[in-house]
């Protein structure tokens, strides 16, 4: 199982052919520099389930390690990031899905990977991305009645109730001009 | 009947709330409710330079800050492309410190887990040994817990004099005392009653839920990041990965108990080859200049100022970097847009996935008292779950 190459810090095997172009013509390679060398693919939102099913059942990427998102501030605004791991082949792959800023919706992958449940709830909570057919789509970190989605880039770091001010103009909370 | 367990409850190891539906004594449904310790660390990191964000990582999993530091530092180093230039002394020291951290984390787990189930004395012994480890950390970093000692490029400061002797003394004491821990619980009939056959996960279930670390290995899956994707030279150390069979609470207990001697083995090998030399990368754009350089050299003073006001700028890109924390696979997903702050920092916290599998362990197959047993065996850190 242990990689025997000279560069053990790089957890990458040859996955060039994992997502064959003839099988998924709409899947593109990501152009962003992956410093870990992980093969990264951009998948259209409506083909996500199909691709992940293929990766899980045929390419044996049995463990979904992580689901998260990035807010790019420009269209397509949101990018979902799925990291998958194959325990049998000691190999990793990354799948990305671009979503629009207006009404971002994607299908949930909980049917394939039940462990995605909380990760998708977290993305829903902090980014406001909706997952269809999710069994229990509620906020997970923030209170249920919270307004806004904190990890969006337009959400102020000082919190929703205080105006954004330069660091040298902070005032005590009670006296803010809200 | 529905019972609300927590968020403030001694056996939930932090602020975890469980909504438990019972039928008599047996658990019908168990819904964990998290978020009570959500401090927005991922959001905060986006407004900090890389070296500032390092201090946030201590505060996620507060029982193994050094391994968090390491995970973050490796991610930043790979993003900068400098991981090959980190001095050997720093790498070997990182191995020693993170393995000590693993032992100390396991000692707290063992103590609290046993205490939850009524064996109070284990906790006191565990704290006694952990104290020596924290003293070593204090000598290195100046603080016992929020160390930030391992930083991108190497170590924050040189090792204190006598580090080698301190660690060897600790190992000598600890190796003598470790068998005593086994006499407390390992063959105790009472311990069997509370742990065997409880909260079992099959390998298939564990993998599908993304469970990692000792829980996954207790279910018989051989996945240890140190073996599969070696980092900081783990491929050069000789150690074994203990595996369980049934995946119940007792197997998780045994896996962790067997991991501790392996950590000792790694530390001993690392101590033998701990080289002299520099502890930080030789790059003034990344490594803070040394005190004598600032006092005598104008250029170093400027570098110092630039580094602490502006920081460094990794080229645009992304990295998903894994390390094996005491609780499982800890990964940092960093996105750089070429500026001096991480555009996005996501922490793949092992406890998050591990806790998620809890209903699977309990529902329909256990009694109310087993919940405490299961929580202890997951070894959750809520600071890491909520971030």
Automatic annotation (TrEMBL), chain A:
<comment type="function">
    <text>NDH-1 shuttles electrons from NADH, via FMN and iron-sulfur (Fe-S) centers, to quinones in the respiratory chain. The immediate electron acceptor for the enzyme in this species is believed to be ubiquinone. Couples the redox reaction to proton translocation (for every two electrons transferred, four hydrogen ions are translocated across the cytoplasmic membrane), and thus conserves the redox energy in a proton gradient.</text>
</comment>
<feature type="compositionally biased region" description="Polar residues">
    <location>
        <begin position="1"/>
        <end position="16"/>
    </location>
</feature>
<keyword id="KW-0813">Transport</keyword>
<feature type="domain" description="NADH:ubiquinone oxidoreductase 30kDa subunit">
    <location>
        <begin position="42"/>
        <end position="160"/>
    </location>
</feature>
<dbReference type="InterPro" id="IPR037232">
    <property type="entry name" value="NADH_quin_OxRdtase_su_C/D-like"/>
</dbReference>
<keyword id="KW-0472">Membrane</keyword>
<dbReference type="InterPro" id="IPR001268">
    <property type="entry name" value="NADH_UbQ_OxRdtase_30kDa_su"/>
</dbReference>
<keyword id="KW-0520">NAD</keyword>
<protein>
    <recommendedName>
        <fullName>NADH-quinone oxidoreductase subunit C</fullName>
        <ecNumber>7.1.1.-</ecNumber>
    </recommendedName>
</protein>
<feature type="compositionally biased region" description="Basic and acidic residues">
    <location>
        <begin position="17"/>
        <end position="30"/>
    </location>
</feature>
<dbReference type="Pfam" id="PF00329">
    <property type="entry name" value="Complex1_30kDa"/>
</dbReference>
<keyword id="KW-0874">Quinone</keyword>
<comment type="subunit">
    <text>NDH-1 is composed of 14 different subunits. Subunits NuoB, C, D, E, F, and G constitute the peripheral sector of the complex.</text>
</comment>
<dbReference type="InterPro" id="IPR010218">
    <property type="entry name" value="NADH_DH_suC"/>
</dbReference>
<feature type="region of interest" description="Disordered">
    <location>
        <begin position="1"/>
        <end position="30"/>
    </location>
</feature>
<keyword id="KW-1003">Cell membrane</keyword>
<keyword id="KW-1278">Translocase</keyword>
<keyword id="KW-0830">Ubiquinone</keyword>
<comment type="similarity">
    <text>Belongs to the complex I 30 kDa subunit family.</text>
</comment>
<feature type="region of interest" description="Disordered">
    <location>
        <begin position="151"/>
        <end position="178"/>
    </location>
</feature>
From TrEMBL, chain B:
<dbReference type="InterPro" id="IPR029014">
    <property type="entry name" value="NiFe-Hase_large"/>
</dbReference>
<dbReference type="InterPro" id="IPR022885">
    <property type="entry name" value="NDH1_su_D/H"/>
</dbReference>
<protein>
    <recommendedName>
        <fullName>NADH-quinone oxidoreductase subunit D</fullName>
        <ecNumber>7.1.1.-</ecNumber>
    </recommendedName>
</protein>
<dbReference type="Pfam" id="PF00346">
    <property type="entry name" value="Complex1_49kDa"/>
</dbReference>
<keyword id="KW-0520">NAD</keyword>
<dbReference type="GO" id="GO:0051287">
    <property type="term" value="F:NAD binding"/>
</dbReference>
<feature type="domain" description="NADH-quinone oxidoreductase subunit D">
    <location>
        <begin position="116"/>
        <end position="387"/>
    </location>
</feature>
<keyword id="KW-1278">Translocase</keyword>
<keyword id="KW-0813">Transport</keyword>
<comment type="similarity">
    <text>Belongs to the complex I 49 kDa subunit family.</text>
</comment>
<dbReference type="InterPro" id="IPR001135">
    <property type="entry name" value="NADH_Q_OxRdtase_suD"/>
</dbReference>
<keyword id="KW-0874">Quinone</keyword>
<keyword id="KW-0830">Ubiquinone</keyword>
<keyword id="KW-0560">Oxidoreductase</keyword>
<dbReference type="InterPro" id="IPR014029">
    <property type="entry name" value="NADH_UbQ_OxRdtase_49kDa_CS"/>
</dbReference>
<comment type="function">
    <text>NDH-1 shuttles electrons from NADH, via FMN and iron-sulfur (Fe-S) centers, to quinones in the respiratory chain. The immediate electron acceptor for the enzyme in this species is believed to be ubiquinone. Couples the redox reaction to proton translocation (for every two electrons transferred, four hydrogen ions are translocated across the cytoplasmic membrane), and thus conserves the redox energy in a proton gradient.</text>
</comment>
<keyword id="KW-0472">Membrane</keyword>
<dbReference type="GO" id="GO:0005886">
    <property type="term" value="C:plasma membrane"/>
</dbReference>
<comment type="subunit">
    <text>NDH-1 is composed of 14 different subunits. Subunits NuoB, C, D, E, F, and G constitute the peripheral sector of the complex.</text>
</comment>
<dbReference type="GO" id="GO:0048038">
    <property type="term" value="F:quinone binding"/>
</dbReference>
<keyword id="KW-1003">Cell membrane</keyword>
<dbReference type="GO" id="GO:0050136">
    <property type="term" value="F:NADH dehydrogenase (quinone) (non-electrogenic) activity"/>
</dbReference>
